[in-house]
Amino acid sequence: MHVVQGEVSVTTHRDHDDLLSGGLGLTGLKDSLAPFADSKHPTEQELRRRAIQTSWKGIADLGPLGGYGAVYGAVPNIPGVEYQAFAKLPRAHAPHRVLVQVPDNFDQAHRCLVVTASSGSRGIYGAIALAGAWGLPRGCAVAYTDKGAGSGYFDFSDDSGVTLNGERAKRGTAMLEFEPTAPKGEGIAIKHAHSGDNPEADWGRHVLQAAQFGLAMLDRAFPDQAPFTPQNTRIIATGLSNGGGAVLQAAGIDDQHMLAGVVALEPNVHTPGRGRALYDYVTEAAVWLPCALTDARFASVPFARDAHGAPHAAWVKRCASLHEQGLLKATTPEAQATEAYERLRKSGWTDQAMATAASTTAFDLWRVIGAAYASAYLRRGADDMPCGYRYEALLADGKPGVADEATRASWWADASGIPPGNGVGLLGGTNDSADPQLAGSECLRRLWTGDDANARELHASVQALAARLPRKDLPLWVLHGADDGLLPTAFTSEPYIDWLRAEGCRPLYWKVPHAQHFDAFLMLPGFGDRHLPLLPYGYAALDRLWAHLYQGQPWPADLPTPAGTPRGAGALQPGMLGLQ
């Protein structure tokens, strides 16, 4: 059972401040970020509204051509009550957030609790566009966990962190979402990378604890109907990306049979002996993909070329750097690109994954993810990150300094949980060569390929992430975009599903054509016309699970994957999804 730290916050959200959109509605969610009346001192309500809006924008395609609210999905006004607290696992250094939304229209005839974990390293509302958007209109309560990550950044410059309501406070004056164990330091500390807990190994426990917290809060909300238990209240687990990995971890350790069904979208799931660990292919991509993507076969791929249609100069330099180190034998840029491409193909990368990964590479996400996860796996603090990396506040001119009060106040609502962004930069890990970022990327890579003490410690942390086998009668559905370039299906979902089937389980699996990892990227040039959103398929899977649990429809042994078609230059139309 979770151990709640401090009091449970109980807030009502009605009229112009609902559960699903903070009163913004779909139109407001699509608009620019909701302003703060006083940028230095935003109110609790303003912070919550903006955190919800930022979470929606980070996950869903809310663009004018994307079809959200017209072709699929909706954002109705859902009044209700929120229960929020800090909780802590045994032996953990840092707490994690749990939050339960109980709608006024809670369906007591079909008692339902949706439990979810944030995608990426996002804050507590990070899965609202999936779990909240599907569950709340159905009358389900929704329990969220930040799974030991989140945007409660700690700033050593003024010794401040984030309180339960999102406001900032000095260490020692209030309970904080995260405060480093080190009494002094420099720069910015973030919970996922610097808590000392390797939170990823506990994602499944975080999900099950959020479910327990959800049941307890339903007891509080409806004492006449208590107790709420897994026997009389069906618990549906769903999540996306890291959240999808979290619910699959939970399914594997659900010894009490709490979960009635699981729907995981594009999960970051590790199946030893069959797939590849995230850290392995992320650090490989950081070193090799920039060069491979200069190959002519990617000439028309979005983000793979500069504004003049030429390969990015920095990526061409990467080819030259690898050649100078003797890692590439070819002597021309074109041949070097092909050699790097063939190397990645041999390690399991598909053309689809590499093509979509041009965006991830252009945004420098491989290095960013590698630095944060290495720090988490090695349980390092903000002053001791591997390979010389560190997080610091950035000034308007891009140079490190001390964050101003307004920037600091907005972190909890706006930040993604892993810098850079929102006035915080990832510094270090570079040298003064023509390819300055390669040194840090190769250092991160050696933590996987090497055999020193640090490498062994990192491998031990990764081994702790291994998925476990769920019970064979658990309805379980995994959906993954065929074009996912961040968490390629060949490394994640496919080996996991193959393992489950080899062990006698009967999971459903949709490898969705034309879908990739980031629905929010569909608003970017060249993305929406090539790719489909994954969220509508997740909603459809949850609908099917609901029909099985509450209407007695049989759970299918297999279900063909819908054959959708990209929307092209126009707006998304219902028939394009192939779901009818």
UniProtKB/TrEMBL annotation:
Chain intervals for the UniProt region annotation (Disordered): 558-580
GO cellular component, one term: extracellular space
GO molecular function, one term: hydroxybutyrate-dimer hydrolase activity
InterPro entries for the chain: AB_hydrolase_fold, OHBut_olig_hydro_put
Gene3D superfamilies listed in its UniProt record: alpha/beta hydrolase (3.40.50.1820)
GO BP terms: butyrate metabolic process
Record key words, sorted: Hydrolase
Protein name: Hydrogenase
